[in-house]
Amino acid sequence: MSTEDAARAEVTLPSGVKVEISGRKITAQGPKGRVVRPFPSDVLHVTAHGNQLTIELGLPSHRKRSRALLRTWVAHLQNLGGGLSRGVEARLKIVAAHFPMKVSVKGDELVIENFLGEKYPRSVHLVEGTTARVDGEFVLVEGFDLELVGQSAAAIERTTRIREYDPRVFQDGIYLTERAHLKEAS
Predict the structure, then answer these.
(1) CB–CB of 172/117 below 8 Å?
(2) With pLDDT > 70 as the criterion, what percentage of the chain qualifies?
(3) What does pTM read for this prediction?
């Protein structure tokens, strides 16, 4: 997907994904949605030619950190294009050993009822651009931006964190089993 030279790299985005670069912002539009991402680096220069992006490094390319910065942004742009064309998902598992937990999605919130026998439900507001659905004992978080899906999954996991119980005994909660990743091509 990308060919790398010591001081430049090329990223080919999937068809249907259009990119505009204005100043320090990259705007990408695809079949799944639109993402605006800041590009904060002064030492990297991005140019777009159709669905081909070229990243040029303004630092000496023999330095390990310079090459790492270049490869990091290659990965960011590949994930951006893949998310806008195929989508992104994360998978969490519902574990209820002591009390039967009821998990449901209401609008843009995930509601967790009867967590450790609590009287009031806990709710998680999903990050805009992501959706969640409950599939048996799993919660699937989906979207088109890898970072936003990861944030929503982390918020769900953090909401069921147990503080005053021994976690070796009380293992109830919702735990991340598959990190946010690009969906398989269909």
Answers:
(1) no
(2) 96
(3) 0.86
